[in-house]
Write a sequence for this structure.
């Protein structure tokens, strides 16, 4: 699963931040997961637990999911991606590359494919806490 | 907030010894055909080769190589399938036959996503087929990918070369390694751009003929490698220190 690649990326970034801030131990890592990519949080958590290094031995990984909100650039209408029905094959493609949403999503008001993903796109590292 | 994908890009590319980016200032000069044929030529010489089509809105290498019925393998990321002895990756595996309208920021996001989650096996060289110009994709590659070299394609047209000069100036300013400039679609009726390239102190790699038969070779790699275009590219490759 691609959650493993994302978990590896999160740990690599968190390690960089911890080293930059001189943290000997990381106590908390806050991660935001966007709904658009339909990440399986359980798998992400498992991957984090398997891939973590000694620096993350006692780390609490806090994972928050965010709804994917879209805004039409033509008529300014805002809506949530979760409101539309998509087939399994497309959902899987979006899982790997969220921008594939531009193939199947149109503004429910004006039909435009020109919209902005306001929030809920991918995986973000919100903060890294620890002790020096 | 930090985008965790950024720090994993070079980790994902760690098994690759050399990265050649096929670029041009202008579209329609034959970048994809050069990138695909270069990949096939190097694979024929027993190098381990990867080809990554980074033109997300107008991908075409899958048509040149006749990629059908293949998908990347999911294995803690995605592993590109191998076709014609080349490990191949394209957004086409996800976008299929549909049009994918992407603004620059979205194309950039897709590029970062695929660069960070694609697990390349050990390769002697990875060839990147780029969209034209010096906008997001080129800037992203320069920003995120270490150890890249640029392989520039132009045509004898002054329209194409004028845009290539701008690309060259940017790459030179950023001190990016440039393998050289290849002149594609050469016709005897037009003067070569060789002298102009040499004025810039950049290596002129050679010219590829305007090949009337190239269209018939699209989708058939055996026919493609037997064209005057491919034979000349192979000759140029053998005398050029690519890596």
């Amino acid at each position: 699963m691609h959650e493993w690649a994302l978990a590896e990326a999160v740990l690599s970034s968190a390690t960089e931040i911890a080293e930059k801030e001189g943290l000997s131990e990381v106590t908390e890592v806050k991660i935001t997961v966007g709904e658009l990519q339909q990440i399986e949080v359980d798998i992400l958590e498992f991957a984090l637990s398997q891939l973590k290094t000694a620096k993350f031995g006692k780390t609490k990984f806090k994972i928050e999911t965010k709804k994917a909100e879209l805004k039409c650039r033509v008529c300014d209408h805002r809506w949530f991606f979760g409101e539309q029905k998509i087939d399994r094959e497309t959902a899987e493609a979006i899982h790997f590359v969220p921008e594939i949403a531009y193939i199947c999503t149109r503004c429910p008001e004006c039909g435009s494919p020109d919209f902005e993903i306001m929030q809920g796109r991918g995986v973000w590292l919100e903060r890294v806490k620890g002790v020096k | 907030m930090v985008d965790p994908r950024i720090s994993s890009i070079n980790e994902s590319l760690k098994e690759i010894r050399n990265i050649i980016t096929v670029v041009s200032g202008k579209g329609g000069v034959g970048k994809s055909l050069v990138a695909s044929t270069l990949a096939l030529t190097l694979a024929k010489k027993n190098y381990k080769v990867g080809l990554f089509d980074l033109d997300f809105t107008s991908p075409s290498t899958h048509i040149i190589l006749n990629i059908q019925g293949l998908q990347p393998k999911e294995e803690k990321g995605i592993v590109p399938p191998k076709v014609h002895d080349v490990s191949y990756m394209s957004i086409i595996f996800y976008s299929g036959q549909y049009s994918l309208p992407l603004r620059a920021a979205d194309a950039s996001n897709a590029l970062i996503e695929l660069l960070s989650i694609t697990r390349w096996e050990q390769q002697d060289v990875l060839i990147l087929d780029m969209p034209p110009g010096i906008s997001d994709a080129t800037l992203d590659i320069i920003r995120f990918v270490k150890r890249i070299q640029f392989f520039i394609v132009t045509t004898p047209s002054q329209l194409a070369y004028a845009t290539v000069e701008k690309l060259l100036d940017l790459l030179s300013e950023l001190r990016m390694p440039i393998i050289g400039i290849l002149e594609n679609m050469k016709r005897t009726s037009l003067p070569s751009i060789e002298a102009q390239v040499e004025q810039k102190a950049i290596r002129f790699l050679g010219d590829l003929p305007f090949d009337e038969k190239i269209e018939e070779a699209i989708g058939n790699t055996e026919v493609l490698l037997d064209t005057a275009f491919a034979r000349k590219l192979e000759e140029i490759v053998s005398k050029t220190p690519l890596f």
The interface with chain B takes residues 1-2, 4-6, 8-10, 12-14, 16-17, 32, 93, 96-100, 102-104, 113-114, 117, 121-126 of chain A (CB under 8 Å). The first strand of chain A starts at residue 25 and ends at 34. The first helix of chain A runs from residue 3 to 20. Chain A has one domain: 2-131.
